[in-house]
Amino acid sequence: MVKIGVIGGGQLARMMIPAAINLGIDLAVFAEAEGSSASLAVTHVGDYRDLGELQKFAASVDTLTFDHEHVPTGHLVSLRDQGIRVYPPPEALSLTHDKIVMRGALQKIGAPQPRWSVTSSEHDRESALVEVGGFPCIAKLPVGGYDGKGVRVVSDWSDFGDWLDLGPVLLEEKVDFVRELAQLVARRPGGELKSWPVVETRQRDGVCSEVIAPAPGLSPSGATRSQRIAADIAEGVGVVGVLAVELFETRDGSILVNELAMRPHNSGHIFTELSRTSQFEQHLRAVADLPLGDTTFISDSGVMANIFGEVNVARASQTLADFPQVKIHSYQKPARPGRKAGHLSVVGDDPHELLGVVIQARAILDSAGYDGGHE
Ligand SMILES: Nc1ncnc2c1ncn2[C@@H]1O[C@H](COP(=O)(O)OP(=O)(O)O)[C@@H](O)[C@H]1O
Ligand SMILES: [Mg+2]
Question: Of 58, 77, 98, 139, which is most buried by a Cβ count within 10 Å?
């Protein structure tokens, strides 16, 4: 039996479990703490920054993959040098560690992206600002940001606050986008690649809140370009597994790359119900070097809504009764304000109707109150 080890015990690892069961893959999870979301498959609890612990875990599996991208690249290179398969490869994964490195790699590949520059001191900041078209622009901490933390709209140097003291900051033109999209693809080690149709993602305070699939009203050319961009990146950096490319659609119809994730992604959760192959199954197939599954949609559309705050089981039963067409995914995570605790999915014909249904269902379910529970 193929044995795949997942570093990280979050909801992405959790949702790989049913896919692994169906494929007959033995899944082992390296979690940071007891009681993690993926605890059903946890075989090791420890610190992923400790090479010795990673080695011990890796010795028990055939292939390593990830629920998050925080493992130091040097550790992954050492593990690979010891003969362990690491997918995605450390060099590819390292692009997601640093948004400046990522922008540089995208430029080499020729992927369309916002104008960007790097500023590291008071001396170079004016020229960096000119390169992105002046204020207002977007400033990003290159390392450690997620869910909009580490991203600021800046209209004045004083908006930087302490950031310049922390080291280089990525500046980007503030894209006047009409909406955000995400294109997911999966790639096998030999290059076989499969794409899902591009989806629309809606953010609230920098955090993904709903996903509509496929992106309603997107031109066929926009859809084709999105797939091409993601395929070129997957090929160009040698991704193995799922690659999620966050995109901006601009007023003039351009598609620009925002950022990358090399693992299953929040924007692909809807594929569990909507596609013949979920992103979790596809990720496992890719990293186990098995033929990729069919990504065709089995319904016209689908909508996913994240749940913030606690998934309250008592209210969940009411949601299940009122909305039998809605699927609930609980991550079994302790509640913390603004934290994703689960998601809801529904598939059908009319995306606007589906969005209404899923938002109503969420309003009943989300005990912390969607508005109140959001940081
Ligand atoms: N260059 C940009 N122009 C306009 N909005 C942006 C830009 N970059 C990021 N954003 C907004 O900020 C959100 C978070 O930025 P992102 O780089 O994806 O950070 P995170 O790693 O926190 O997801 C994006 O989803 C988008 O809404
Ligand atoms: Mg993002």
Answer: 58
